[in-house]
Amino acid sequence: MSTALSSPIKVRVVIPCRNEAGYIGRCLRSLIEADRAGMEVEAWVCDGRSDDGTREEIAELAARHRWIRLVDNPARTT
User: Fold this and answer.
1) Which of 2, 4, 41, 57 has its CA 20 to 30 A from that of 18?
2) Cα separation of 47 and 58, whole Å?
3) Low-confidence ranges of the chain (pLDDT < 70)
4) For the sheet containing 9-17, what is the strand order?
5) Is residue 70 within a helix (H) or strand (E), and if so which, with residue range?
6) CA torsion through residues 69, 39, 65, 29, sign
7) Helices (H) and strands (E) in the chain, counts
8) pTM above 0.90, yes or no
C-alpha cells in the first residue's frame, strides 16, 4: 500500500488575463514567495494577447521560474 504523503501534492494554478500589467507581477510574485513545501506547483498564465506589457512581464518571470508558463489565448477570452 502506497501513501500519498510520500509524493508532492500537484497544484496547477490557471490565471486568465488580458492587459493586467499593473497586477500580474504582484500576482505571480505572491506565488513565487509562497511556501510551496510539499507541493509541485505549475502556474499557467493564459494571456489574451495583451498589448500593455503584461506578456513581457509574464515571460520575464517564466524565464526565471520554470514552473510558470505563458500560454497564448488568441481568442482573448477569460
Assistant:
1) 41
2) 9
3) 1-5, 78
4) 9-17, 39-47, 68-72
5) strand 68-72
6) positive
7) 2, 3
8) no
